[in-house]
Amino acid sequence: MKILVAISNVPDTTTKIQFTDGDTKFNNAGVTFVINPYDEWYALVRALELKEANLAEKVTLIHVGLADSEATIRKGFALGADDAVRIDAESQDAFFVAEQIGNYARTNGYDLILVGKETINYNGSSVGAMIAGVLDLPFISLATKLELAGNKATVENEIDGGTQVVECELPVVISCAKGMAEQRIPNMRGIMAARSKPLQVIPASGSTALTSIKSYTLNAGRTTCKMITEDNLDELVSLLHTEAKVI
Questions:
Q1: Is the pLDDT of residue 245 over 70?
Q2: CATH number for region 2-218
Q3: What are the domain boundaries of the chain?
Q4: What integer best gives the mean pLDDT of the chain?
Q5: Considering the entire predicted model, what is its pTM?
């Protein structure tokens, strides 16, 4: 069994967000990039666990991005991935990324494709479903548990009021959420081995983005908190109407 894990290159969560070119582009200057935590902590680590349990023979990373993202891919190697593919193109939108990954996966016969539930920079939660659509494969979202037995995957995810258990034959695309696995820290052996693991770079397959960014706007940030004593309900009601805009 071969597992393909899609990873995204995202700004570290401590990054101070700034935009350039009339607020149409993210300013990369001085920014530290990392593997998207949902891709790393849940999708990649669960794939490695399945390999360690002898349920998979190979874990391959795939990433759509330029050469400056290769340090992120090497972090995945340090954690234990066997090899990686970088599709040499700037990430344009969710469908562009999904189609690039889908086109590669179609010709390389993967039994299981794992992605994080979303990226922490765009929070779109759409690439996994789009990959499944490109490949015409089943898709299970927001999975918190994954077990394999032969050619069948048993997956749990949370729904309103409880937990849903889904059984599906492979191949399948699954997006992974909290609970799927626990975060790992690369050890020295893994860091040293990461230097020599194969990273294949291939050109984009020619698809185009379906969306474009018109502009970005920073959120207003946190406002001050007003404390109202328990015996001053009239002021609370007034503030709810005038400042919180509760009608």
A1: no
A2: 3.40.50.620
A3: 2-218
A4: 91
A5: 0.86
